[in-house]
Write the structure tokens for this entry.
Amino acid sequence: MLDPRESCTVCRGAPIDCAVCRVKELAICAVLSDEARRELAAIGASSRLETGETLFYEGDSATEVFTLTSGVLKLYKLLQDGRRQITGFLLPGDFLGLAFADRYICTAEAVTVATVCRFRRPAFLRLVHSHPRLEHDLLSRATSELAAAQEQMLLLGRKTAAERVASFLLKLETRLGGADGGRLDLPMTRTDMADFLGLTIETVSRTLSQFRRRGLIALSGKSTIFICDRERLAACAGG
């Protein structure tokens, strides 16, 4: 039975309406029956984040877990000297929060206007234990996150600037489900890209310009990139 203290009003948001969710087949709830989805919705709430708004800060008590239902989030850590390392970008359908222990190990901030479904950890964990398929899906996602972390270590530790930028563009295209005619509308800024790739913003901009001159991509404004030669771009990525 649901503890009243773990109702959606505690989670600071509106009731979850799965009927209008556009990512329910991508999110963790995809493996649940309709009845189980209603159980999940009953222990959570939907919240909206404006661009630049923080979902949680590094060091905050990890009391909730989240599913991103629209928009883009970035995860980052701050170094002692004030430098920022972005560790990942989250897209609709991604889940976050369960891998953290007592406190969040990074900050989550909205790159664009975003919405999340949020759940209190104790209630969510009880539901997970009662639905093995959900537990299996979470394990699978955790395995994918570990693989992504290892890939990021390779990216930062061994790849050149050109290889990093090319890898980023191709990975983002894959995560977005394949760009429409090679078009990528980047939600993140050049600064965000640089902080994720361990480069300066000047290096990112210079590398994109080099790709454009070589005919690998075309640029339209600050946020739109067209992949013109995917095979050669993949070769640049080292793949």
Summary: The chain has two domains: 4-144, 159-236. The two ends are 51 Å apart (CA to CA). The longest strand covers residues 64-70.
